[in-house]
Amino acid sequence: MIFKALSSETRVNIIKLLLEQDRHISGVAKYLGISVPVTARHVNILEQAGLIKKRVIGNAHLLSANFDGFNKIFEPFIEENTIHINKEESLYDALKQIPSIKINTIDSQHFISEVDGEQGYYLYGINGKKPDVSIDEYKPDSDVIIELDRIIPVHKRRIRVKINKKSKELQE
Description:
Blueprint (H helix, E strand, L loop, with lengths): L1 H4 L3 H12 L2 E2 H8 L3 H13 L3 E6 L2 E6 L1 H7 L17 H5 L5 E6 L2 E7 L2 E2 L1 E6 L19 E6 L16 H4 L1
Antiparallel strand pairs: 1-3, 2-3, 4-5, 5-6, 7-8
C-alpha cells in the first residue's frame, strides 16, 4: 500500500507540501493546480497508507504529514540482535558487544557514532521512548528493546548557482 501511495508524483508532491506545514485540502489543490476532488482521492490513498493524517475542524479538512507512517516503511528491513548483560551493566556495556556499532567518547561520556558503517549521530530509544541520560548511565532493570535512530539531515533549501555566459567585464 505504501509503495502504491508513493508511486504517484502528485502524491509525492502532496507529502512534500505537508512536510513544510499543515494545509487545508483546498490549499493543497490550489498549490498543485488540480481540482479538490482529485486532490481528495490522492489524499485518501496517502491516508490509507498511513503517510498523512487528516483532522476535521468543522467543515475543513486539515492535512499533516504522519512521520510514524514513514518509519513503518522501513520496519521490515530493520536488523535485530540479541545480547545479554548483567543487571548492574549499562547500555554501553550491551552495545559495545556488537562489532558493527562504534562508540566514541567525549568528556567521559559515550555516544553512538556509527552503525553498520554509516557514520553519523544516533539517538537511542528504550521500548519506544527516548531516555534523558547517556548510554553509560542507563542501566535497564528488565529486558528491553533498544532502537537506534540515525539523525538524518533534512534538506531545507536548494540553491542553484548559475554561471553567467559572459565575463564580468563584458556585462559592465
